[in-house]
Write a structure and sequence with these properties.
Shape: globular
Order of helices and strands: HHHHHHHHHHHHHHHH
Radius of gyration: 32 Å
Number of strands: 0
């Protein structure tokens, strides 16, 4: 987040972005709420990983887009149609099929991963945490607390999505991103100084420095594009695109680590992709389909009105012609001479 702060401030100062760095006065409270909500969204995800398998933490985190759409429909009265709700649930089902949370589907605390050999085979998680030596040693209370913090993260992420949409185009996207990055940086520094057992460590070699810089650049790009998308499109369409990151995760997992997705992962990816296409396409298609419809309806209405008033209009035309040329009835019509004469 520190890298994001430096990039945001440097770019906005260099390009003289209006209202830098705090934004317009009427949206500053919303920007603060966006920063705080985004922080809790990130914190809830990372804390839950201490006591939950990655699959279960991922599925809980992906509740945020649907919650954000529901909040936007209530607070800022954005349309959230029934079919968009169904598309969101279908995408969440696709996430469940890809992640396959072990506690819900397999009755154990080991998270299965997608492999090409036996799809759904549980693989022990060797993840270490400060609260337990491994996920096998996690108590039920620790697990319940992790789920609660993960749900807090869902609320924080939904708050961030909603406030970004509420702010709209009244603030530059980088100002919104800068609020999040600054708040996270401040809380992280305070946590390093106050929380016991939390140490600050610098990267040990050039490779780790490169990975850290690459992570900061990717985080900056992700936050910028997410904020820009939510500002220009309604929440039900923009937030549903978040589900597609599971497709990229599977792709890079194959390219970088050679992990072949199994049958359930392919089905889940298909559900996510089809839902994303449905949410993104139908509105534009409906608009194009209705472009010519008002013209036909207008012509039909004009035809009906003309048919009803035909008698009156014909009489009116005859009266106007008679009034315009009274000489026809009086016999004072002048005839042209014939050519032969």
């Amino acid at each position: 987040m520190g890298i994001t702060v430096v990039l945001c401030c440097g770019y906005m100062w260099y390009t003289s972005v209006p209202d830098f760095p705090f934004g317009k006065p009427e949206v500053r409270l919303l920007l603060v709420a966006r920063g705080m909500g985004g922080f809790f969204g990130v914190y809830g995800m990372y804390y839950s990983l201490l006591y939950l398998p990655i699959a279960e933490a991922t599925v809980i985190t992906f509740l945020a887009p649907t919650v954000a759409c529901w909040a936007c429909s209530i607070l800022i009265h954005e349309p959230f149609t029934r079919m968009e709700q169904v598309a969101g649930l279908v995408s969440l089902l696709g996430v469940v099929l890809i992640a396959r949370p072990a506690a819900f589907l397999f009755g154990s605390n080991t998270a299965p991963i997608a492999t090409g050999d036996i799809d759904g085979t549980p693989v022990p998680d060797t993840h270490k945490s400060s609260g337990a030596n491994s996920l096998d040693d996690v108590t039920s209370m620790q697990r319940l607390g992790a789920v609660g913090v993960a749900l807090l993260g869902v609320a924080g992420a939904a708050c961030a999505y909603t406030t970004i949409r509420w702010i709209g185009k009244r603030a530059h996207p980088l100002i919104s991103v800068n609020y999040l990055a600054t708040w996270c940086s401040i809380v992280s520094v305070v946590g390093l100084l106050v929380v016991p057992g939390v140490d600050f460590r610098l990267p040990a070699n050039l490779r780790q420095w490169g990975l850290l810089l690459f992570l900061g650049l990717c985080g900056f790009a992700m936050q910028l594009l997410l904020t820009t998308g939510l500002q220009h499109e309604k929440s039900s369409r923009a937030t549903n695109m978040v589900y597609t990151q599971m497709l990229f995760a599977l792709t890079f997992d194959k390219l970088l680590w050679g992990t072949t997705p199994g049958a359930l992962s392919i089905v889940g990816s298909s559900l996510i992709l089809s839902s994303a296409i449905y949410v993104a396409v139908p509105k534009d298609a409906a608009k194009k389909a209705t472009v010519g419809q008002p013209r036909c309806t207008h012509d039909e209405e004009q035809g009906l009105v003309h048919g009803v008033d035909q008698g009156h209009s014909d009489g009116s035309v005859e009266e106007e012609d008679a009034a315009a040329s009274p000489s026809r009835d009086s016999g004072d019509v002048q005839m042209r001479p014939m050519r032969g004469q």
